[in-house]
Amino acid sequence: MEKLPKLYLSLCCALVLFSCQKDTNLNSNEKRELAKKTYKAAIKFRQGSTPFQNGIADAVAIDPLYAQGVYELSVADLKRGLPHKWLPQYNKAVVLDSVTRIPWRGYLYLWFYRDYKKAIADFDASDTLTPEFIDAPQGHSVDYWRGIAYLGLKNYEKSNWYFEKHIAKEIKDFGEDYVDVTAFLYNGISYFEAGNYEKALLNFNKQLKYSRNLSADAKYYKAKIFKAENKNDNALEAINEAIQNFNQGYNNTRGYVETLRQLYPQDLTELKTEIESL
Amino acid sequence: MMKAKKVFKIIGIILLVVIIIITCIVGYFYYTYTQAFNTENKPYKNYIGYINQEKALLNDVYTLCENGYILRTYNGAGLDAYTVNKKHYRDQLNTTFNHNEFTDSGYLNFRFLVNCKGQAGWFEIIEMNLDLEEQPLDPKLVDALLSFTSKSEHWNVLNYSDSDKAYNYYMYVSYRIEYGKVTEIIP
């Protein structure tokens, strides 16, 4: 019997351990910590599910200035085709953390809405926000993204200007083999569209050099250049290799959405038929 | 004898305490897990992208397969959904739609379900201006694109990766429209 008080004490300790903590009367640091903890518990659930969204909404209710939570509430709407709900929520995160969220919004305008002008406006704004460094939302510099956005707008001169700037900086900082091969690809496409076949070929060859000579895209555009230059044998060889690489899965794509200038089997067979009829 | 009794008593108490603690821990996690799914007094009543099948357009043409379970709700079926591929879809749209004389600009989004037979229905429509704000578009333009998008011939039957069995899936298509012409199709 004399052990019972100890038992009760242990139980009380256990209850205290699992008791709820009220978030009133917390200072701003404590609120942020609690919001982060609530957020971490919520993101264990599937993105966009009710426990995920409601849990993050709780975190934001605890600390309305918690930018990561405010941002994350918008993401599922973006991925699932509800732009009218995505943008107002996303813009709340822009107010809290414009340095991160403005170039990132440019990236989202570029790929999820194909609004090249709005994307460029956000990338340009990031130059002013952080003049001392070049932002890199989603792993690529804003110069790289501007190169793509200007290609989308068919402004090939500006597209090439930004890709050249991006590539030169990557080479200076890390070396040519560090440059993402798609920078060479898109730079090449813009030169191709502008009629500068020499520089286009240079870029497509660079892309092939750094991707083990495996790229349906680079070879497709090379075939187009050879065709334009009346080098029909080279063109046929290039398109055949392009088809082979495509069938092996070596073509440019991206997650969630179609990429810019994505190739399809019809593009390849149409070009092959054109070359064969010459 | 007394000593053995005392030892048993101690072991009994320890076991009891351990059982109570384990029950508390399991109960705590069970409670927090189920509470996390409780949407009472919470802002989000359904998962993001949920389509209310009672209210959706074209909800009585086809039926969902099996128990109505819907896959690909994370971001829609994307490029997997287009019959043949997206280029084919784009080409079809350009031949059937883009000759029409509309003048509106904006985004027109369709969110819908495709059943295991590749039949599309249960449509929700979002009409927006180019700033992604909700704003009505020309009803004839919306009708024309709804009629095109809801044709089941455009949508693939999608199978579970490890079997020949097909599933119901969620899909969204977004049209960027400039001066009445579709200039971009997303995803």
Describe the protein.
The complex is a heterodimer of chains A (278) and B (187). Chain A is an all-alpha fold. Chain A is 70% helix and 0% strand. In chain A, helix 5 (83-96) packs antiparallel against helix 6. Chain A is elongated. Chain B has two domains: 1-45; 70-186. Chain B is built from three helices and five strands, in the order αβαββαββ. In chain B, strands 1, 2, 3, 4 and 5 form a five-stranded mixed beta sheet that branches. Chain B is elongated and about 100 Å long. The model of chain B has no long low-confidence stretch (mean pLDDT 95). The chains are: A mainly alpha (278), B alpha+beta (187). The interface between A and B is large, with 42 and 49 residues.
Present the secondary structure layout.
The complex is a heterodimer of chains A (278) and B (187).
Chain A: H1 4-17, H2 28-42, H3 50-62, H4 67-79, H5 83-96, H6 98-112, H7 116-129, H8 142-152, H9 156-173, H10 181-193, H11 197-209, H12 216-228, H13 232-247, H14 265-276
Helix pairs in contact in A: 2-3, 3-4, 4-5, 5-6, 6-7, 7-8, 8-9, 8-10, 9-10, 10-11, 10-12, 11-12, 12-13, 13-14
Chain B: H1 2-37, E1 70-71, H2 86-96, E2 106-114, E3 120-128, H3 139-149, E4 168-178, E5 181-186
Parallel strand pairs in B: 1-4
Antiparallel strand pairs in B: 2-3, 2-4, 4-5
